Amino acid sequence: MKTSKYISKIGVGTVQFGLDYGISNTKGKVSPNEVSQILKLAEDNRIAYLDTARAYGNSEQVLGMNLKNSFNIVSKISPAAKNAHQEIKISLENLQIEKLYAYLFHDFDTFKNQPSLWEELKEAKSEGKVKKIGFSLYYPSELELLFEQNIEFDILQIPYNLFDRRFEPYFQKLKSKNIEIHVRSVFLQGLFFMDNQNLSTHFDSASKKLTDLHVLAKNHQLNKTALPLFFVLNNPNIDVALLGLSSLSDLEKNLKIINDFDKIEQLKLDFTTFEEQNEKIILPFLWEN
């Protein structure tokens, strides 16, 4: 099945399992029962990756109560952490597993302010508690610093979507070092689905691009989700694209939409006009109401 090459790159982002999150999320946290259904559907479709974090409310605990199968689980150290070994111990207990696929710094400042935590992560890896270690970053300048300091890591999680392509120039170098690239913010917290009239004036500078995206999808009889998702999953450098889910139907819809990817491939679309330089648009923590 041709679409399987895309499905195998999907990871489930679980922030909404533990927190109310996302500009287009009107449902709040996902219930534990629905989490169980999501994980079952993910397993049935051979989706292998789950992404969580100590800072995602009770996401780790909810996953731990519902894990009945073996996923590759990525979690992240708390920004307030003082001891990485203790953080990993808590994550493993919460998730009710013996080993994590990967453990990341949730933000670069934690690494910068407490470099000893990186040494502890390396120890945890050598002890077999974690298979891979790495970083969740927001800015290319942070990646530059890691390269300058010759920090050897296994996995990188970064924002990447139709608007935000700041890390693209580094993809080839990362792959040459066999570093896994996991991307988040594929739908920019749902901004790509929103109609302009439902957005604050903060987004005025991006309104034309959003309109153009919706018109392009409509002209080719595609769901609004299809083009942003295709753009990311079709990039050969991306290993895992994390999809934040607010319901079981979100995953069902995404899996169904992937069936249209053969059609999108044939369209040979040029997505370059959607790139956005304004950080107040592409970085959700800079959004204003």
Q: Remind me, CATH topology?
A: TIM Barrel
The value of Rg in angstroms is 19 Å
Structural class: alpha/beta
What would you give as the CATH superfamily? NADP-dependent oxidoreductase domain
Average pLDDT confidence is: 92
CATH architecture: Alpha-Beta Barrel
Organism: Bernardetia litoralis (strain ATCC 23117 / DSM 6794 / NBRC 15988 / NCIMB 1366 / Fx l1 / Sio-4)
Protein name: Putative oxidoreductase, aryl-alcohol dehydrogenase like protein
Pfam family, one: Aldo_ket_red
Features:
alpha/beta; 14 helices; TIM Barrel; 289 residues; NAD(P)_OxRdtase_dom_sf; Putative oxidoreductase, aryl-alcohol dehydrogenase like protein; globular; eight-stranded parallel barrel; NADP_OxRdtase_dom
Outline the structure in words.
The chain is an alpha/beta fold. It has one domain (4-286): Alpha-Beta Barrel (TIM Barrel), CATH 3.20.20. The protein has helices at 4-7, 15-18, 32-44, 59-66, 84-95, 108-113, 116-126, 140-148, 171-176, 207-219, 226-233, 248-258, 261-267, 279-282; strands at residues 10-13, 49-51, 72-77, 100-105, 130-136, 155-159, 180-184, 240-244. The chain has an 8-stranded parallel beta barrel with strand order 1-2-3-4-5-6-7-8. β2, α4 and β3 (72-77) form a beta-alpha-beta unit. The longest helix is centred in the first third of the chain and has 13 residues, at 32-44. The radius of gyration is 19 Å and the shape is globular. The N and C termini lie far apart (44 Å). The mean pLDDT is 92.
